[in-house]
Amino acid sequence: MVELAEEVSRAFGTRVRPDLPQDILRAFGRAGISLSSTRKWELQEVDHPAVAPLLAYKSLYRLYTAHGWSWLEQWVHDGRFRPEYVPGGTVTGRWTTNGGGALQIPKVIRQAIRADPGWRLVVADADQMEPRVLAAISRDPGLMEVAGRGDDMYADLAARAFGGDRAQAKIALLGAIYGQTSGDALTHMAELRRRYPAAVAYVDDAATAGEQGRLVRTWFGRTSSPATTSEHLDQDNPPAFGTTPAARARGRFTRNFVVQGSAADWTLLVLAGLRHALNQAGLQAELVFFQHDEVIVHCPAAEAETVAQAITTAAESAGRIAFGPTPVRFPFTTAIVECYADAK
């Protein structure tokens, strides 16, 4: 970082602090280049010798501040990263951490996460989990059929409804879940609503309930948090759809809650099934990492294939237990690696 900072200063012909955005903006201004920010995408448009070392410095600076010496001292002990998990820490049931950033480990840090000698990391990432959960809870026949193929759900959906354009299919499906109502998401929602009416109606109904101040529930019956005072609406005389920004914001929350919350319910069953399978098989394998759609198991190399199969079995069993008999499949993309970074 010191060397890169010096290189940046040499490129400008004067001392510049690359960690101070205003210093950078003034330096570019003196060079006749007007910038509105020091964001990466804006710097990449500039032809100046300071850009390359500046971008490299910014990357290392983020690493230094988030995962530098103080992070190592506080969260890494005896060769292990030891964050403080909070199961169900969000209103949707997703896990959080009290510190350490365990749920947002950048790729450069993943290079340091390695299995013990003779052991492997089995890294399993759920494929398009939220759209598959939406198919299961809405019981939409068409969407369940797509989710039952076990392939790339966005590509399959694109071939059926969006002229083969996977990006459009992804925007439409995630827009239905997250309540995106502008731009491409709005354009594609009409096609999604025409082909998968029950799925779209399921999240639309949840959004309407939220806008009217009512509660919604996950598939297991876990209830959303009540509206705040600023969001409170007269439930006896509900206003028209989306009358206030607060109502629309709450509608987006409840729309997402019924899917994300049900997905969180499913993942708990996956973890329970996996732990039970590993214990029953008498394996040395240990579950060492979990976030909303990813599980990592540390195990002897000889057990890796068995563990990978156990994850697949736990996911399918969780789907049956949680949602009953449906054609929906819940596949994982699984990698057996020595280094976490190699799994992506």
Structural write-up:
The protein is of the alpha+beta class and 344 residues long. It contains 14 helices and 8 strands. It has helices spanning 2-12, 21-30, 40-43, 51-67, 69-75, 107-110, 129-138, 141-147, 153-161, 166-178, 183-195, 197-211, 245-280, 304-323; strands at 76-77, 80-81, 85-86, 96-97, 119-126, 286-291, 294-300, 332-337. A 4-stranded antiparallel beta sheet has the order 6-7-5-8, with helices on one face. The chain has a two-stranded antiparallel ribbon with strand order 1-2. A two-stranded antiparallel sheet has the order 3-4. α7 packs across α13 and α10 (166-178) packs across α11 (183-195). The longest helix has 36 residues, at 245-280.
Features:
344 residues; 14 helices; 51% helix
Task: Report the β-strand fraction as a percent range.
Answer: 5-15%
- Spatial gap, N to C terminus: 27 Å
| SSE-based structural type | alpha+beta
> What's the pLDDT, averaged over the residues?
88
The H-and-E topology, N to C, reads as HHHHHEEEEHEHHHHHHHEEHE
Count the helices. How many?
A: 14
Which value, in Å, is the CA radius of gyration?
A: 24 Å
Which stretches are poorly predicted, pLDDT < 50 over at least 5 residues?
A: none
Query: In order across it, which strands form the biggest sheet?
Result: 6-7-5-8
Helical amount: 40-55%
Count every beta strand, where a strand is a DSSP E run of 2 or more residues. 8
Outline the biggest β-sheet.
4 strands, antiparallel
The dominant shape is: globular
